[in-house]
Design brief:
Elements: H1 2-58, H2 83-97, E1 112-116, E2 119-124, E3 132-144, E4 154-168, H3 171-174, E5 187-197
Antiparallel strand pairs: 1-2, 2-3, 3-4, 4-5
Helix pairs in contact: 1-2
Length: 200
Protein backbone atom coordinates (compact mmCIF):
# COMPACT_ATOMS: atom_id res chain seq x y z
CA UNK A 1 0.00 0.00 0.00
CA UNK A 2 2.85 2.40 0.83
CA UNK A 3 4.40 1.66 -2.52
CA UNK A 4 1.18 2.64 -4.34
CA UNK A 5 0.90 5.86 -2.34
CA UNK A 6 4.51 6.71 -3.16
CA UNK A 7 3.85 6.29 -6.88
CA UNK A 8 0.78 8.52 -6.69
CA UNK A 9 2.76 11.24 -4.96
CA UNK A 10 5.45 11.01 -7.63
CA UNK A 11 2.88 11.30 -10.41
CA UNK A 12 1.20 14.26 -8.78
CA UNK A 13 4.53 15.96 -8.33
CA UNK A 14 5.45 15.50 -11.98
CA UNK A 15 2.04 16.80 -13.08
CA UNK A 16 2.55 19.89 -10.94
CA UNK A 17 6.00 20.42 -12.49
CA UNK A 18 4.56 19.99 -16.01
CA UNK A 19 1.81 22.48 -15.20
CA UNK A 20 4.36 24.98 -13.86
CA UNK A 21 6.32 24.71 -17.11
CA UNK A 22 3.38 24.77 -19.53
CA UNK A 23 1.32 27.53 -17.90
CA UNK A 24 3.71 30.35 -18.90
CA UNK A 25 3.87 28.90 -22.42
CA UNK A 26 0.09 28.82 -22.65
CA UNK A 27 -0.18 32.41 -21.43
CA UNK A 28 2.40 33.57 -23.99
CA UNK A 29 0.66 31.67 -26.80
CA UNK A 30 -2.77 33.03 -25.87
CA UNK A 31 -1.52 36.63 -25.67
CA UNK A 32 0.38 36.19 -28.96
CA UNK A 33 -2.73 34.86 -30.71
CA UNK A 34 -4.81 37.72 -29.33
CA UNK A 35 -2.16 40.34 -30.14
CA UNK A 36 -1.47 39.24 -33.72
CA UNK A 37 -5.20 38.82 -34.36
CA UNK A 38 -5.76 42.34 -33.06
CA UNK A 39 -2.96 43.65 -35.32
CA UNK A 40 -4.67 42.09 -38.36
CA UNK A 41 -7.95 43.66 -37.26
CA UNK A 42 -6.26 47.08 -36.97
CA UNK A 43 -4.75 46.62 -40.45
CA UNK A 44 -8.23 45.87 -41.85
CA UNK A 45 -9.67 48.98 -40.17
CA UNK A 46 -6.83 51.13 -41.55
CA UNK A 47 -7.39 49.79 -45.08
CA UNK A 48 -11.09 50.64 -44.78
CA UNK A 49 -10.32 54.16 -43.49
CA UNK A 50 -7.84 55.03 -46.27
CA UNK A 51 -10.13 53.50 -48.89
CA UNK A 52 -12.97 55.76 -47.76
CA UNK A 53 -10.63 58.76 -47.65
CA UNK A 54 -9.34 58.02 -51.15
CA UNK A 55 -12.83 57.58 -52.59
CA UNK A 56 -13.84 60.90 -51.08
CA UNK A 57 -10.65 62.59 -52.34
CA UNK A 58 -11.10 61.32 -55.90
CA UNK A 59 -14.46 63.12 -56.04
CA UNK A 60 -13.14 66.42 -54.68
CA UNK A 61 -12.47 69.39 -56.96
CA UNK A 62 -8.88 70.27 -57.69
CA UNK A 63 -9.41 74.04 -58.02
CA UNK A 64 -8.07 74.74 -54.52
CA UNK A 65 -4.92 72.70 -55.23
CA UNK A 66 -3.61 75.28 -57.71
CA UNK A 67 -3.76 78.00 -55.05
CA UNK A 68 -0.27 79.50 -54.59
CA UNK A 69 -0.63 79.21 -50.80
CA UNK A 70 -1.15 75.44 -51.05
CA UNK A 71 2.54 74.90 -50.34
CA UNK A 72 2.31 76.53 -46.90
CA UNK A 73 -0.45 74.52 -45.29
CA UNK A 74 -1.06 75.26 -41.63
CA UNK A 75 -4.06 74.77 -39.34
CA UNK A 76 -4.91 78.49 -39.68
CA UNK A 77 -4.53 78.51 -43.47
CA UNK A 78 -7.75 78.49 -45.48
CA UNK A 79 -6.39 75.87 -47.88
CA UNK A 80 -6.31 73.35 -45.04
CA UNK A 81 -10.03 73.70 -44.51
CA UNK A 82 -10.59 72.79 -48.17
CA UNK A 83 -10.51 69.48 -49.92
CA UNK A 84 -7.26 68.16 -48.42
CA UNK A 85 -8.19 68.93 -44.81
CA UNK A 86 -11.59 67.31 -45.39
CA UNK A 87 -9.85 64.10 -46.45
CA UNK A 88 -7.73 64.01 -43.28
CA UNK A 89 -10.76 64.68 -41.09
CA UNK A 90 -12.75 61.94 -42.85
CA UNK A 91 -9.98 59.37 -42.27
CA UNK A 92 -9.73 60.46 -38.61
CA UNK A 93 -13.50 60.20 -38.15
CA UNK A 94 -13.49 56.75 -39.74
CA UNK A 95 -10.77 55.59 -37.33
CA UNK A 96 -12.87 56.81 -34.39
CA UNK A 97 -15.95 55.05 -35.81
CA UNK A 98 -13.94 51.82 -36.03
CA UNK A 99 -12.94 52.17 -32.36
CA UNK A 100 -9.32 53.19 -32.98
CA UNK A 101 -7.76 56.34 -31.51
CA UNK A 102 -7.16 58.90 -34.27
CA UNK A 103 -4.10 60.31 -32.43
CA UNK A 104 -5.49 63.83 -32.99
CA UNK A 105 -6.02 63.56 -36.76
CA UNK A 106 -9.52 65.02 -36.46
CA UNK A 107 -8.18 67.97 -34.45
CA UNK A 108 -6.36 70.48 -36.64
CA UNK A 109 -4.76 72.23 -33.65
CA UNK A 110 -2.45 69.27 -32.88
CA UNK A 111 -1.45 68.46 -36.47
CA UNK A 112 1.90 69.02 -38.11
CA UNK A 113 1.37 69.38 -41.86
CA UNK A 114 4.10 69.31 -44.49
CA UNK A 115 3.55 69.70 -48.22
CA UNK A 116 5.39 68.88 -51.40
CA UNK A 117 3.86 69.60 -54.82
CA UNK A 118 0.42 67.96 -54.61
CA UNK A 119 1.16 65.84 -51.53
CA UNK A 120 0.24 66.68 -47.93
CA UNK A 121 1.56 64.74 -44.92
CA UNK A 122 -0.19 65.01 -41.54
CA UNK A 123 1.78 63.90 -38.47
CA UNK A 124 -0.02 63.57 -35.13
CA UNK A 125 0.75 61.75 -31.88
CA UNK A 126 -1.83 62.94 -29.36
CA UNK A 127 -2.94 59.99 -27.23
CA UNK A 128 -1.00 57.34 -29.17
CA UNK A 129 2.12 55.29 -28.46
CA UNK A 130 3.84 56.73 -31.54
CA UNK A 131 3.25 59.06 -34.46
CA UNK A 132 0.38 58.58 -36.88
CA UNK A 133 1.33 59.74 -40.37
CA UNK A 134 -1.27 60.34 -43.10
CA UNK A 135 -0.13 61.26 -46.62
CA UNK A 136 -2.65 62.55 -49.15
CA UNK A 137 -1.14 62.63 -52.65
CA UNK A 138 -3.59 64.36 -55.00
CA UNK A 139 -1.08 64.26 -57.88
CA UNK A 140 -0.37 60.52 -57.95
CA UNK A 141 -0.12 58.99 -61.45
CA UNK A 142 0.18 55.46 -62.76
CA UNK A 143 0.38 53.79 -66.17
CA UNK A 144 -2.35 51.60 -67.68
CA UNK A 145 -1.09 49.05 -70.21
CA UNK A 146 -2.83 48.52 -73.56
CA UNK A 147 -5.70 46.06 -73.32
CA UNK A 148 -9.13 45.38 -74.81
CA UNK A 149 -10.36 48.59 -73.14
CA UNK A 150 -7.39 50.83 -73.97
CA UNK A 151 -5.81 50.93 -77.42
CA UNK A 152 -2.55 52.39 -76.09
CA UNK A 153 -0.99 52.91 -72.70
CA UNK A 154 -2.35 55.79 -70.65
CA UNK A 155 -1.25 57.85 -67.66
CA UNK A 156 -4.01 58.01 -65.06
CA UNK A 157 -4.26 60.94 -62.63
CA UNK A 158 -5.22 59.57 -59.24
CA UNK A 159 -5.28 60.21 -55.53
CA UNK A 160 -3.30 58.03 -53.15
CA UNK A 161 -3.83 58.04 -49.39
CA UNK A 162 -1.32 56.28 -47.13
CA UNK A 163 -1.54 55.88 -43.37
CA UNK A 164 1.15 54.69 -40.97
CA UNK A 165 -0.43 53.86 -37.61
CA UNK A 166 1.34 53.12 -34.28
CA UNK A 167 0.26 49.75 -32.86
CA UNK A 168 1.08 48.88 -29.24
CA UNK A 169 1.99 45.24 -28.68
CA UNK A 170 0.77 43.39 -25.55
CA UNK A 171 3.07 40.45 -26.33
CA UNK A 172 6.06 42.28 -24.84
CA UNK A 173 4.48 42.20 -21.37
CA UNK A 174 4.30 38.39 -21.18
CA UNK A 175 7.29 37.17 -23.21
CA UNK A 176 9.43 37.67 -20.10
CA UNK A 177 7.69 34.63 -18.57
CA UNK A 178 9.59 32.29 -20.90
CA UNK A 179 12.48 34.50 -22.06
CA UNK A 180 13.56 36.82 -19.23
CA UNK A 181 15.50 39.85 -20.38
CA UNK A 182 14.27 39.61 -23.96
CA UNK A 183 13.62 42.92 -25.67
CA UNK A 184 10.72 43.34 -28.05
CA UNK A 185 9.38 46.55 -29.51
CA UNK A 186 6.67 48.30 -27.52
CA UNK A 187 4.99 49.49 -30.71
CA UNK A 188 5.40 49.27 -34.46
CA UNK A 189 3.87 51.01 -37.46
CA UNK A 190 1.10 49.35 -39.46
CA UNK A 191 0.75 50.83 -42.95
CA UNK A 192 -2.17 50.88 -45.40
CA UNK A 193 -2.46 52.51 -48.83
CA UNK A 194 -5.32 53.06 -51.29
CA UNK A 195 -5.33 54.59 -54.78
CA UNK A 196 -8.37 55.77 -56.78
CA UNK A 197 -8.43 57.57 -60.17
CA UNK A 198 -9.50 61.22 -59.91
CA UNK A 199 -13.00 61.90 -61.20
CA UNK A 200 -12.63 65.71 -61.30
Amino acid sequence: MKRLLGRLRGTEGSQLAEFAVTLPLLVVFLIAIYDFGNAFSVKHKLVTAVREGTRFAANQPTADLSNPSAGSCSPDDSICTGSVEAIARLVGAHLLTEGLPDCGLSNSSVQTVTTSDLSWTYSVSSGCAGTLSLTVNRGFTYQVSPSALYVKSMTVDATQVTISYPYTWQFRKVIGLIAPGSGYATSSQITATATVPNLN
